[in-house]
Amino acid sequence: SQQQSPNIISPTALYMKHGMAMISLRAKIQGFIVLDYIKQWGRAKQQLAQWIVEGKIQYQKEDIREGLENAPAALLDLFNGENKGKLIVKIGDRITTSEDGNQNEPRIIASRL
User: Fold this and answer.
1) In the 8-state DSSP scheme, what is residue 26?
2) Residue 44: how many CB atoms within 10 A of its CB?
C-alpha cells in the first residue's frame, strides 16, 4: 500500500473541513471554460480593447524577474496573485547558431512559471 505525502490533503479531509459550512451557506461551485462563451468572443474582444483605450483596464503581457535566485520568490508571487501578466524568470541569454553556421542575434531563454 502507498502512503500519501503529509503535504497532500485528501478530498475527504477537505470536505470534512469545509463541506458543512458550504452546505449551510448554500454555496454553489461552478466552473466554466472559455469555449462556453465562444459566441460572445467578438463582442468581448471589442469591449476589452475599448476598456484598454479608456484606461479602465491595463494590459501587461509579461512580468519578468531576473535571475534563478529570484525563482522561489517569483513562484510565491504567482500563487499569491502578485504577478502582472505571464510571470517569467529570466535565467540568462543564449546565443544560437543558424543551420548555415552563422551566429544569430542573442535570444532570451526564459522559464515560464
Assistant:
1) T
2) 12
